[in-house]
């Protein structure tokens, strides 16, 4: 298994950038729950980190939940990085669409870091730059599997969203969000057909939209 590397970050620091901010999102595809973005500001010292745990940093989607939480805790407690989080609720996703909601969440997470725009650069997971940012950007398709700092952001975002969905599972137990985290699994679809959509379902997403239409 190929692990994300630090080559791009090291190159950018050598070029004179003082701040590197990696940003990633989680929750584009689910039928329920928010989209969550994490921005991680790293330092050259962080790249030299010898933590055995952080050697296992990789795309959050391929990490088991327990290890993912351990890595997130390790990252959050590291004094050589700063991180921020932002999310967009399902009702807003329905109003502005998931693409715009994702951009909004990522831009908000970056702005919370209050970076100096001079000598700063943002590494974005995906192919689209974030509109409304007056700062250099590099987009990397599948960046969470290639770029170390983006993988770090993906882990923090994923753990945060999963915990949000666990809380929703207590509020809406009939949907079993603790098992599927809002994604369109067979179990989730069965719950939807039985109970109909709830407050945190994305009414503009199929098959939720079809159920909403049939209920009118």
UniProtKB/TrEMBL annotation:
* Catalytic reaction equation(s): Endonucleolytic cleavage to 5'-phosphomonoester
Q: What is this protein called?
A: Ribonuclease HII
- Sites binding a divalent metal cation sit at 24-25, 125
PROSITE patterns per UniProt = RNASE_H_2
**The UniProt record lists the keyword Nucleotide-binding:** no
Give one GO term, molecular function aspect: manganese ion binding
Tell me the protein family, please. Belongs to the RNase HII family.
Cofactor binding description: Manganese or magnesium. Binds 1 divalent metal ion per monomer in the absence of substrate. May bind a second metal ion after substrate binding.
Annotated ranges, domain RNase H type-2: 18-216
Gene name tied to this protein: rnhB
Q: What's in the GO CC field?
A: cytoplasm; ribonuclease H2 complex
Q: Which InterPro entries match?
A: RNase_HII (IPR022898), RNase_HII/HIII (IPR001352), RNase_HII/HIII_dom (IPR024567), RNaseH-like_sf (IPR012337), RNaseH_sf (IPR036397)
Q: Which cofactor does it need?
A: Mg(2+); Mn(2+)
